[in-house]
Amino acid sequence: MFLTQKTEYSIVKIDMSREVLDFSAFVFSTVLIAILGRIDMSFNLKATIEKRNFIFSKKGYIPWQPEFEKFGTKYNNSIQAPDNLLSGIIADFYEIENADFAEKSLLTIPDGCTDFMFAFDGHKLRSYISTGVKENKKFFFGDIKTLFGVRFMPGSTYHIFKDPIKDMVHHPVYLDSVLKNVNDLSDKFLECQTFQDRTSLLSDFILSNLCWEDSKCEIITNLTNLIFHKRGNIRIEEMSSQLGYSTRYIQDVCNEYIGMPPKEFCQTVRMQYALILEQKNPQASLETIASFAGYADVSHMNREFKKYMFCRMSDIRQDKVNKYEKKAEQIIFSRN
Predict the structure, then answer these.
(1) pTM exceeds 0.70
(2) At a CB cut-off of 8 Å and minimum separation 6, what does 50 contact?
(3) What CA–CA distances, in Å, run from 72 to 103, 106, 157, 295, 322?
């Protein structure tokens, strides 16, 4: 019913033993460098980058899909506030309109998140569960008018359904194959007039479907929070020591409920952090970005970026990501 093939990925052995400095230290260092005349501090900041950067600066995690923002002429986004009831479960809501879905695919980068995606063609609504990709993929929806999404924090779908998501990686499934009352949700969704209406509807739906919390829920939360706090710069042995679980069990939990091994997930979190640093500080040197993201050097950063995004950080800085889009496999969202 859905396509792409699963691929086994080799893991690059890296040294993640040293801690990354707080972002406040990064800001101080870039100001100091600017005073010395080495970089230009006149940054062009976007609101969405500011919000994401703030969350990372507090050692949290907020995923970013930059091509989503560029795909259509209209893009809506709502990042969950810290005091929201769904904070820690939902990362954000988003909506893409006025895009050429019929001819083009939506480039998606690794973020460790699982999304509920609602594709509306003007007559019929189709809803999917799509897990985070392990490397750049191209999502193809066909001739639709609007794509609305709910992006869950890594591992947090366990709050909604207990099924493992590992078999959904690169294989999106229909939402109603996992959750009940989806038909009723779809009817209400079609009645909504605005992005805010749809966001409120999905918030209420998710709150009403929250499952009981058990010991595994606590393990997933503690594990992901630890990785976020370290911005991905932590070894599985340290996770085991701090959490009190075996490395094998941590491997299993990550694979089952995040959809990738812990080392790949850590590398994904670090890559996302580096992307935000670069966008927030476009005049900072790549050496500075690599250092404060936790890479050994620029070569190390480029190796991991090429592994997941098929391009180097310098290509991203020069807005040449689409040059490498042809390397990404396409995932077709079924319309049957």
Answers:
(1) yes
(2) 280
(3) 12, 10, 28, 33, 15
Per-residue pLDDT tens over the stretch 123-146: 999 999 999 999 999 999 999 999
Question: DSSP code of 145?
Answer: S
- The predicted pLDDT at position 60 comes to 87
Tokens of 264: 């790949």
Determine the length of the chain. Answer: 336
Name the amino acid, one letter, at 36. L
Encoded tokens for 199 = 């966001």
Give residue 56's pLDDT band: very low, low, confident or very high (50, 70, 90): confident
What does the angle CA 209 – CA 334 – CA 155 come to, to the nearest 5 degrees? 35
Between 53 and 270, the more confident residue is 270
Q: How far apart are CA 221 and CA 242, in angstroms?
A: 14
Nearest to 331 by CA among 174, 172, 175: 172
What is d(CA 62, CA 113) in angstroms, rounded to the nearest whole number?
Answer: 10
Question: What H or E segment, with its residue span, contains residue 288?
Answer: helix 286-293
